[in-house]
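Before relying on records like the one below, remember that each one covers exactly one chain. Contacts with other chains, cofactors or solvent are not represented anywhere in the record.
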Amino acid sequence: MFGSAFFHNYARMAWSVRKVVGTNDDVVTVMLVPNKQNDGTWLGPVGLEFDFSPDQITLKNIEPAMVDGLSEDLPVRLRMVPLLKQAPRTVAEIASDLNVQQDAVVKAVQRSRNTFIKLTDCPDGVHRIALVERRVS
């Protein structure tokens, strides 16, 4: 009965997998995204990169928001985090880098007050968005 509602409803947790072929045929990048989770803390997307060589298979964690082909499927707030780990940015810079509307960035900041903070004391007078964990006291 694959595809029926019961297939999805019986699972305690369900993941979807998306694959992107790397720079060469020996590198494959996958993103696992939780579709359903009945209990516990919500888990975010997981990125894995497989490197197939004649001698071994190497596996490493990656940030899915930094992979072209995978990041477009993620919410704006998740795509903003690795970008803001580099440095605080203006709303216009974030929107340009992520190729989204400025309004989407503003809404992501408003909805994720535990993650983002608006810096209003910048020397040039332009407000910037930063990660709460990187806020300078």
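The beta strands are 13-21, 27-37, 46-52, 57-62, 116-119, 128-131.
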